[in-house]
């Protein structure tokens, strides 16, 4: 119950793999909890476009049709990013943590943050904080796919401003 509830709270849409990430031995027990919750109308199956071969579930009070165009700077350690198979399945994005890669071989940067707008990862931004100057410095900005646009840039810059205020206040 705890694993399922934690996953629903942090991920919204869950699969057996995402619930049991790094705890594969618990899959049979979690599967039983899922089946009980479905029977009690506390969980409902949903189809995820592009991932139809994998079963997914949501709480009935979550409307999976809602598209929120919110912008998020995601840490490389965010559960969405850490679960690499799920990330690639849902967003067609493969993240590499490049802090341990030689500088000349980095694609996105030392500590690149994937940027999520709505249901798309549109960019990766390598940031550094200059605490003495109280500024957030963009080391590198990499657009992903065909997501480069003035509208996306404005959304990301607004989120960077909010993030800078949060980090440095």
Tell me the β content.
Answer: 15-25%
Order of helices and strands: HHHEEEHHEEEH
Mean pLDDT: 90
Structural class call reads alpha+beta
How far is the first residue's CA from the last residue's CA?
Answer: 38 Å
Kindly describe this structure.
By secondary structure, the protein is α+β, with helices and mostly antiparallel strands. The protein is built from six helices and six strands. It has helices at 2-11, 16-19, 27-39, 79-82, 84-91, 150-168, and strands spanning 44-46, 56-58, 71-73, 112-117, 120-130, 135-143. The strands form two sheets. A four-stranded antiparallel beta sheet has the order 3-4-5-6, covered by helices on one side. It has a two-stranded antiparallel sheet with strand order 1-2.
Structure described in brief:
With 169 residues, the chain is an alpha+beta fold.
Present the secondary structure layout.
Layout: H1 2-11, H2 16-19, H3 27-39, E1 44-46, E2 56-58, E3 71-73, H4 79-82, H5 84-91, E4 112-117, E5 120-130, E6 135-143, H6 150-168
Antiparallel strand pairs: 1-2, 3-4, 4-5, 5-6
List keywords for this structure.
169 residues; alpha+beta; 4-stranded antiparallel beta sheet; two-stranded antiparallel sheet; 6 strands
């Amino acid at each position: 119950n705890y694993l399922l509830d934690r996953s629903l709270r942090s991920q919204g849409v869950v699969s057996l793999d995402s619930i049991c990430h790094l705890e594969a031995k618990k899959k049979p027990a979690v599967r039983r909890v899922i089946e009980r919750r479905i029977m009690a109308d506390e969980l409902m199956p949903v189809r995820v476009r592009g991932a139809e071969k994998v079963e997914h579930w949501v709480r009935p009070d979550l409307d999976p049709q809602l598209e929120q165009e919110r912008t998020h700077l995601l840490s490389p350690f965010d559960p969405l990013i850490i679960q690499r198979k799920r990330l690639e399945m849902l967003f067609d994005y493969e993240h590499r943590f490049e802090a341990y890669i030689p500088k000349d071989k980095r694609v996105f940067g030392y500590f690149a943050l994937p940027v999520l707008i709505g249901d798309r990862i549109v960019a990766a931004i390598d940031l550094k904080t200059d605490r003495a100057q109280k500024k957030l410095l963009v080391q590198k900005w990499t657009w992903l796919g065909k997501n480069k646009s003035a509208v996306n840039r404005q959304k990301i810059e607004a989120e960077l401003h909010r993030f800078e205020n949060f980090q440095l206040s």
